[in-house]
User: Fold this.
Amino acid sequence: MPNEAVLRKYARLLIQTGVNIRKGQLLVIQADVQNASFTELCVEEAYKAGAGEVWTFFNDEYIHRQSILHGDEKALSTMPKWRLKQEEEAQERKCAELHLISSMPGLLDDVDHSKAGRIQQARSRAMKPYYAYTSACLGQWCVAAVPNALWARKVFPQLAEKEALSALWDAVLRTMYISEDNDPVQAWEEHDRALKEHCDVLNQMQFQSLHYANSLGTDLVVQLPMHHIWSGGSETARLTKAVFQANMPTEEVFTTPLRTGVNGTVVASRPLDLNGTLVEDFRFTFRDGEVIDFHAEKGSEALEHLLNTDENSRRLGEAALVPYDSPISRMNLLFYDTLFDENASCHLALGDSYPTQIEGGVEMSEEELLAHGGNVSSVHVDFMIGTQDLNITGYDQEGKEVPVFRNGSFAV
Amino acid sequence: MPNEAVLRKYARLLIQTGVNIRKGQLLVIQADVQNASFTELCVEEAYKAGAGEVWTFFNDEYIHRQSILHGDEKALSTMPKWRLKQEEEAQERKCAELHLISSMPGLLDDVDHSKAGRIQQARSRAMKPYYAYTSACLGQWCVAAVPNALWARKVFPQLAEKEALSALWDAVLRTMYISEDNDPVQAWEEHDRALKEHCDVLNQMQFQSLHYANSLGTDLVVQLPMHHIWSGGSETARLTKAVFQANMPTEEVFTTPLRTGVNGTVVASRPLDLNGTLVEDFRFTFRDGEVIDFHAEKGSEALEHLLNTDENSRRLGEAALVPYDSPISRMNLLFYDTLFDENASCHLALGDSYPTQIEGGVEMSEEELLAHGGNVSSVHVDFMIGTQDLNITGYDQEGKEVPVFRNGSFAV
Assistant:
């Protein structure tokens, strides 16, 4: 474990740069019981920064596992009304949300995935009305990670538990631009400026489509909707006007694909941790935006459940560009967690698109969003496609070819 | 820490004998984050015993402390509606409730007690409508304890942390009648029978009043309402018909005093841990049921806040008899936790009385309950009065003296 000064620096970064808590604001924290002591630091820093109240909700993955193994499916599939009320009340009070995730790779490998999928799907459906608060940036939110021993052993299988945990903490802190002697808040201001410059260029180009190709077998054309927006780094909450970082770390710039305009084959370049099940060596074939075929060497069942979640879970909701030489990529680690692995690699996401990525999208109804080419689903699952030899070619408004990525990195 | 087999025995005892979970029933667990791994065992045993669903809510006392120190009083005093909805929904579903407490003595010593008191009072008032579910035994509920390091160091200040924790576990398991080679479920059946025999005798006597006297300075007459009921050990939930143990451990038999019929002085024989503040060397003077004077060498402020909670928090809601030679008493430990210390000693409680302790009480409105001599308050706080030389004399329906306790133990 890092010393308390460094941990406190991390907590302060999440409060100041991550959710950027406002005076008197309600902060809602979701965390894992294993990370209670780090969560306590975050609460302390939140109050120091002026939070009026902090609601902390602890999750326990071992208990979640028990529920899936032995609980009554009907009961578990019915989202309690108080849970919806909780979300409603927090949002009415213009809360900020901090999600401290702590990956537990493999923990759900042996559960009934079809049962787990149905429960997850039912609960997501019930929560859907509340997703816009974060996905449309009404309030500030931040997702960040806290290491745990199980996760550390998965990332560093060659190390003993204590050393593995220490190594994972080091890696996580590096992705967060935290060192013993720097001011990470300032480091993030610089990092954010660099991401914004890439977005500016891409937004000026307004590509009609992107053609992805590499030696893994990816040969995919992704059309982009009219008036699509590339974003990256900080965002501004519409209700509170506070600037925040939704994902920490973040190295990506991203937009939304045209939900009916994806054709060809894409091969995943990294495994995907799907609610605890590892999906490995998988590929999708798209026609007119929809997955019409897929294959996975491992975890095929879990992947199939994801694809069948709802009528739009077979379509894309995000296309993100991350250079192969990004800091996280350079570590050459598989984190078994999307928050990190997506920032090591170009990726796509199945499911919901962010309405913020189409001009005027946040004011649109679901029907309007679909009509403008955005996607609407109860899931949003990133999968990695970036490789060192990935080339992406853009086609601009006149159909002219523009190299966007060459050999895994920005060429534009 | 005890080995896993013993911990599992404890978890099973709480599920089978404590809440006695029914097939398909919802179990609601409240626990401290520090005790997550024991909580996980309880969830596992609950599902094994047929629970349909388990809701687990984790509390973190360090976060609670931060809230009291730095949170906005108005926000904290407003109980969120979802929290009430949560209670309502659990009770509609005829849940069983398991509270795993884990004392943190002294943790709140340095907070603003007046602020803490007002917040506590406001939240208790909001929750009042939901207390009957447990206090009137509609559903099964069980309060039991799980050791933590801070608590262990307080109980065993002469030991190092690891040894102290081990010693506290040993002590707690002894109070629960758990040993490596016994069946604690069976041990509790025998224990329960013994408590029921004492209740039967006291219920037959139907004393008009009890006169408490000892060398500490206690000289108190406590009248009992007409048709009062002495209870002890297991109870039966009215909605589910399941037999359960509300407190584990339990060594007491108890009834409700007449709220207008308490006169004289009572001197506490042990310190009282009041929401983290230790109240020491305190006494109350009663006239016509009400505390008209009090004194505490330490923690006087916290005690005053308690007395001023509402209009009935200065009156008694419980009188309980525990022999000075009960197993917990014989350990001669101060646990700094009411659940244990009350079972080492005769005690009284300020505040709410259990409607179950007057015939027909559970069907009465609050007004009827008050008219029959019961007490209605948003607090219920036990304080210890038993000593080795405590004498209690009962006065029966004809005014005849009957020795109930002599030299700290049952004489009846």
The mean pLDDT of chain B is 95. The radius of gyration of chain B is 20 Å. The first helix of chain B runs from residue 4 to 18. Chain B touches chain A at residues 24, 26, 33-34, 36, 39-40, 43-44, 47-48, 51-56, 58, 60, 62-63, 66-67, 69-72, 75-76, 80-83, 85-86, 88-89 (CB under 8 Å).
